[in-house]
Amino acid sequence: RLSDPVGAVLAGGRSRRLGGVPKGLEHVGSLRIVERVVAALGPVTSHIIIVANDAGASDWLPHIPVVADLHPGLGGLAGVETALAQGTSAIVVAWDMPFVNEMLLQALADAAEADDADVVVPASDSPFGFEPFCAFYSARVRDPLSAFLSAGGGPARDFLRSLPRLRILSAPEVARVGDPSRLFFSVNTRDDLERAKAMVAAAK
C-alpha cells in the first residue's frame, strides 16, 4: 500500500466575497466547514495539517498543526507544495467545501495506488473540468511543483497537464461515491453559505 498520505486542509484565499471572514470558520449545520473537511479526511489518513498563512490559524483547531506556505501569494498550488513538504504524498481539500466525503477521498487514494498516478483529480463541471484542490498528489510531484512555483506559478491546470501520469477520476466514478453537485459545492459568498445550510437542513 501507499505510505500514509498527509491530509491537508487548504485554508487559503482572502474571502473577499464573504466579507473577509475566513470561509472555513463558518457553520454549516452544527459544524464549521473546516471541521467537516477534517471529519472527511480523518478515516483516510492518520496525519492532518492545516495549510494557512493567517496569524490566528493555530486557534481554529488547536489539536491540528498549522503550516504556512513556502511560496505565499501563489494560490492553492502553494498550499499543495506545503503539504508535500511534509515528506509524503498528500490528499488535499480546500476548506470551503463542506460536503466532501470520506468515500471520495478514499477513491482518490485508491486510484493513485492502482494506477501509480502522479496526481488524481475528480472530474467536475468546474471551469477546469476537474477539482485540483480536492485531490491526491504523489510525493514525487513535490520537486516539479516547487520548480513551477519558483518560476512564478500559474493556473493549476497548466501544472497538472504537464505531468506524465495525471489520473482523472471520471464523472461516473465520482457519482458512485456521492452527488457531484454536493461533493464539490464550495462556499464563496453569503448566498453560497445560505444554500449550504439549506442543503444540510433538507437532508435531516
How would you explain this protein's 3D organization?
- With 204 residues, the chain is α/β, with parallel strands linked by helices.
- The protein is built from 8 helices and 9 strands.
- The strands form 2 sheets. The protein has a 7-stranded mixed β-sheet, with helices on both faces.
- β2 and β3 form a beta hairpin.
- α2 packs across α4.
- The mean pLDDT is 93.
Which key features would you list for this structure?
single chain, 204 residues, alpha/beta, seven-stranded mixed beta sheet, two-stranded antiparallel sheet, 9 strands, globular
Can I get a quick summary?
The protein has helices at residues 33-41, 76-84, 102-115, 142-150, 156-161, 171-175, 180-183, 190-203, and strands at residues 6-10, 27-28, 31-32, 47-51, 66-67, 90-94, 119-122, 134-137, 166-169. With 204 residues, the protein is α/β, with parallel strands linked by helices. Helix 2 crosses helix 4 (142-150).
